[in-house]
Design goal:
Largest interface: A-B, 50 and 54 residues
Helix content of chain A: 10-25%
Strand order of the largest sheet of chain A: 7-10-13-16-21-24-27-30-33-35-36
Radius of gyration of chain A: 24 Å
Number of strands of chain A: 36
Oligomer: homotrimer
Largest sheet of chain A: 11 strands, mixed
Structural class of chain A: mainly beta
Number of helices of chain A: 4
Distance between the termini of chain A: 47 Å
Shape of chain A: globular
Amino acid sequence: MTQGVLLTEIINFLKDDIIRLHGNFDNLLIKYLQAPSMVDEYTLDWINPAKIEKQFVAENSKARAIISNNEVIYTKTLIDSKKVLIVTNDPKLSITKIGHRFFSDKIQPLISHTAIINENAKIGVNAFIGENTVIGKCKIGNNVKIHHNVVIYDNVEIGNNVTVYSGAVIGPDGFGFQKDTNGDLIRFPQLGKVIIGDNVEIGSNTCIDRGALGNTEIGPGTKINNLCHIAHNVSIGRNVIITAHVNVSGSSIIEDNVWIAPNVSLKGHIIIGKNAFIGVGAVITKNVPVGETWVGNPAKKLK
Amino acid sequence: MTQGVLLTEIINFLKDDIIRLHGNFDNLLIKYLQAPSMVDEYTLDWINPAKIEKQFVAENSKARAIISNNEVIYTKTLIDSKKVLIVTNDPKLSITKIGHRFFSDKIQPLISHTAIINENAKIGVNAFIGENTVIGKCKIGNNVKIHHNVVIYDNVEIGNNVTVYSGAVIGPDGFGFQKDTNGDLIRFPQLGKVIIGDNVEIGSNTCIDRGALGNTEIGPGTKINNLCHIAHNVSIGRNVIITAHVNVSGSSIIEDNVWIAPNVSLKGHIIIGKNAFIGVGAVITKNVPVGETWVGNPAKKLK
Amino acid sequence: MTQGVLLTEIINFLKDDIIRLHGNFDNLLIKYLQAPSMVDEYTLDWINPAKIEKQFVAENSKARAIISNNEVIYTKTLIDSKKVLIVTNDPKLSITKIGHRFFSDKIQPLISHTAIINENAKIGVNAFIGENTVIGKCKIGNNVKIHHNVVIYDNVEIGNNVTVYSGAVIGPDGFGFQKDTNGDLIRFPQLGKVIIGDNVEIGSNTCIDRGALGNTEIGPGTKINNLCHIAHNVSIGRNVIITAHVNVSGSSIIEDNVWIAPNVSLKGHIIIGKNAFIGVGAVITKNVPVGETWVGNPAKKLK
């Protein structure tokens, strides 16, 4: 990214998102998106709407170009310092789109030589399969990115545009045991699939177990962070956010747009209603109704 | 499994477990064990004794053959629909045994070409060693299944019929440090073994540290799920169930037949007495007496 | 270690740490450091100052040589049994230094044939890089030990004398998403580095995400145990102890010499002041002042 991109190009890309545009951006070169402490003249800075003193921050930025919402005014200070001010409704979304389009690394399609792929696996076009990744007899869609040292067992179905980070394990036997008459533990049959929808992301070292007699399902657009455990027969809806160290026990259901903070643990056979928010470290032992926020151990509704 | 198995064969296998047997099962072909929503005429259905309305469920099953306990009666409805009803004392155990015998994938013995095994490691007969698995100078029994991308360090002893799922790490140094006089942290010597008994299962991405001056021990028949941490010098008894995300700190003792729910954390030097049950998300800071149930943070006895 | 080391050599090594030295240690051979239950005549035993009845333990040890603090007296019993008693101020530190010097395995520098290292990675002298380890375009110092099946992404900087245990994943994208106007989740740009100081240790299967627009930083001397998650933009100071299953959410700051017990979870944007102690299973939702001890869910100051 040392060569950078012309601000003109970025402005053309944002186009309809821009409410107002101040200053002269001809030939202005942007090399970085960077944290406040690192901002320099080649950084495209942005003012988080959640911050206070937005005007002060803008006027003191070392950047020559700034994205903000309409609470920042193009004052004489900004004019005199020849800053470009780009006003959008949602600066964080704008910077996200710009980052995605111009600054993020693009992983090129490639099947690594050290990947070990079952001869009956079906993998769509434009896949990236990382080093030492092991893929069983699976069905995998287009444009997937399976990073390094991942293990995907047999009987896994993965949609399009899915990313799996390194060290994740998808599709091992679920953890269910019956006591034999002599007290020995025998594994209850674990014969189901894992079915992962389009645009899902699975974090590093996360584990997703196959279903027992049914399937384990992750809905489209859902994002799961590192070191999570998704047990057998769990069903997760669309656009759910599951942060790190979350434990979802067997047969639980998480509906669309739920947000689960880090280190939350769900008992088995629990239902988390749509749009619910579960706070950090909560231990969920009961169903959570639609749209509610629950915290604590055992978790209760936050008043 | 698309070819299926004759119900006659299954009935012969169950034999002594069967209390009553109703209907004509000649030539009846079973292809699947499946979840209630997926049951079809080729499924061997079963009625979980924990469910209510067992008779109703049985009479409305799409399956031609059903296993239940003696609370389901072979009514005219079942007779007229030509269903086979197999009555056993413990239908869940019956279906477990059937799954294990007829439907579960059998992993054949194989040392993968990409496995890296220390030349002084001793491994018994009929081992499966998965792709990219690294095995140090260890002693490993018969009929083990070590899945993919597993790392087993030196000084590990593993019994017979042990399964280790992908990404598990067994035998790295325990986490103990001393402050040097200048404040730097030096690792306390970690020189012990990990000793794992027969019929143990270790879940994906679980970590088991070697002992410091003693050993870390996992007793026969114990099952550990994904993403657990078993610290140095821990001693775990027989037939213990340790579910996902459980953290057992250094030198703790877990006695036989204990059941530990997900995301439980044990302080170091704790004793969990035989047959105790530790509820989801519990933080155990004291010894738990034999047979008690503890929950909460800090955990207390459940009254 | 079966050949052992002469006690004379150990005593010369400890030298200035020794306050008093009793008994005849000529030709006395030490083969092991071992747990109390395993102590034999070839073990160098030590009496933990935290134990009660230190004199009794010393007099009943099967070892011929014992390290203790000055609470153990060289009684007639010890004289008669011809024991050697080495008195130091900090026997645990003494045994740590002895273990490190004479008994711990030394990993020799080696780049494993199966390691996959980016051609633009810069790695210092005397590195050990384990089997199947994948290293991106990184800067890595001298004397590092990167164990097996580790993944280090691009944009990671690692200091000298750093150890990374098996299965760790360092440098994947942080977990931050913005909602697009249609409700889809887009990843906020994750463009920063992970910067790891000298003498850091990273445990097995631990994950450390790269910064978003800034960096994720781990200070010198800090030790992180297994299965931890360190999110984007986290900043950790010097000589911090982070035990297993700890979750540090985005942009949190942990100052020097903090001690975090297992399974602790920190909300994002939290500051943990110097020398603080966070108890097992604590859920930290507020800043913790310097030197305080916090426990519980939500965590509060321990009185």
